[in-house]
Amino acid sequence: MKIEPKVLNLGDDINTDDIIPAKRCTTADPEYLKQYAFEHLIGEGNLLGYDEIVAGHNFGCGSSRENAPIAIKAAGIKKVRAHSFAEIFYRNSINIGLTLEIDSQTQGNPVVEAIVSAGGLIPFNQKRQKGEISLPKSATSARVMTMAEKLLARASGNDYVQPGETVFVKVDLAMSHDAVAAPVAKVFYKHFGENAKLWDANRVVLVADHFIQVNDLRVDPKATLQYSEMVQFARSQGCHLLDVVSPGEAAGICHVLLPEKGFIRPGTIVAGTDSHTCTYGAFGCFSTGVGTTDMANIFAMGDMWVRVPSTLLFQLEGTLPKYITAKDIMLFILGKIGCDGAVGKVMEFRGSIIERMPMEERMTLSNMAIECGAMCGLIAPDATTRQYLQSCGQDLFEEVVSDSDADYEEIYRFDFSDLESQVACPPKPDQVVGISALGEVTITKAFIGSCTGGKLFDLAQAAEVLKGRHLAPGVSLFIVPASLEVRQKAESLGYMQIFAAAGATVLKSGCGACINAGLGVLDKEETGVYATNRNFKGRSGDPTAKNYLASPRVVAISAVEGRISDRLSAKQTQR
Hints:
By secondary structure, the chain is α/β, with parallel strands linked by helices. 31% of the residues lie in helices and 16% in strands. The protein contains 21 helices and 24 strands. Strands 8-7-6-11-12 form a five-stranded parallel beta sheet, with helices on one face. β9 (244-246) and β10 form a beta hairpin. α13 (326-337) packs parallel to α15, α18 (456-466) packs across α20 and α18 runs parallel beside α21. It is globular and about 75 Å long.
């Protein structure tokens, strides 16, 4: 008698924080992770009673943490079937041998099939090292190309590529941080030898920023161990280490810190063990998030496999109303196309609004491209890019732009002359409404920080609102400068004094509450408004809490008013 598999049925947009909460990811131990898979959805340990998972669109969206497919595989799940998968989750699953089935897939991919047949990426690359497998050149004929296609063609040694084909591209810069670097090092040594060396130590940057403050919130010795193992690996390999500058304080959050320090150059390929690595696309480079196995193989081989994405063009025109920012634009786009609107694709931004947009605002757009499912958010370099890079000591780079008649999968045209402040309602960043349609939402917490909301431009918005004003009774506002340099500039501009006088709490630089690993998280049943990039259930605190996303200006006004608002009431005139 045939025994039917027990199937867990799930819906659309099942994110990595649903699969395995970030707070559980201070270890990569499969036996630990499997106990907490889907704990917010079906309860702790209950995935062990299932054999297969069936889901809808965009399964595995969110973080690049490989802990998600590791937890699923360790729990004994034989297959995950979905209408579509988030690209990073797809790559991670293929790399570790978790079987995926795509409902809409009509034809195979030879390179992906070869990786699967070999048993995963590591055995595939081990065969490459022995000369048992060679990578064929692209057979794509001469064609016009987008910026992303040009970058991938050049990095893969091809004249031309086209969407849908898989190529191995040489990586110009690899980044990892304290939440992932230690597991990457273990995989690297395990499979490439205990004396293995990085393919190019000068192209590897490790950053301490994710879990360095977790012990301010809860005792977690595993996080401390992962940090110390990352530092040890960096020192033994001689790669770049952007370490803590004092106990619990990062030199900066990786996606703000790397451009500041001159590591990011237009025309390059950047891989990072963080989904928001797409931030660097603002500088005209193809940058994307990868998982543990991908990064271990990059450490050894210096390249990675990429399914060439199609590109969606976003033409942003008009004159932005006063106080409307890149965060409002990106939330509006999310509301229009959804969390799965750009799955496995590239979002390219251009238009008169981009031309007038400062670099830090462009970074916000590119940063949140991943919330639409995109691999990268690209902006062509221009005078603004060059000025920023030169200020960071970077003047040697090549600019790559799309052909004028490039083939885009779809072109979106938006005139933002009348855009109002946008707010994303829980539990997803695409549940967006204009603030005039939001209704009354009282809050107890507000947060301005993270790679999306802690840049100097963001703090300037907050300071303008808070000057001469005070927080509403019962509201806590936490402000986190995204780097030490941002903090120092904010101090010199008087922002820190303004924040203190208003009653806000300024925290040390780091990811902290954004990843439920520092002060400022939401407690049970709390409601908050955050200038971060995700509001998934349990992402920034207790799973019963409600987290709204908005621009730093709206967050600051809301903290003063005690409710989500973009207008200061008469009683809040400056003192």
